[in-house]
Write a structure and sequence with these properties.
This protein is mostly helical. It is about 65% helix and about 0% strand. The chain has one domain (about 5-80). It is globular.
């Protein structure tokens, strides 16, 4: 589970990655939508499953930038 600071970081990086990478990786638009819900409610198991599917199991691709790497690491931590 994420602490308050990590949650802020997750929301920031989800938005940043969605904004920058949406032309080539539109899945991050949906990731950002799901992450925004974390601020207002507890995520359900189906949300985690969708995040896992969208991100290929939170695996960091070799082409990932630092923002994507941070986002995926935070998503992985939040799913535990």
């Amino acid at each position: 589970m994420l602490n308050k600071e990590e949650l802020k970081e997750l929301v920031f990086f989800a938005d940043k990655v969605a904004t920058v990478h949406w032309p080539d990786h539109g899945e991050f638009i949906r990731v950002n939508e799901i992450v925004k819900n974390i601020e207002t409610k507890e995520l359900e198991e189906s949300d985690y499953e969708e995040l896992k599917e969208l991100t290929n199991g939170f695996v960091i691709p070799e082409w990932a930038c630092k923002a994507q790497t941070t986002l995926l690491n935070l998503l992985l931590k939040s799913s535990k």
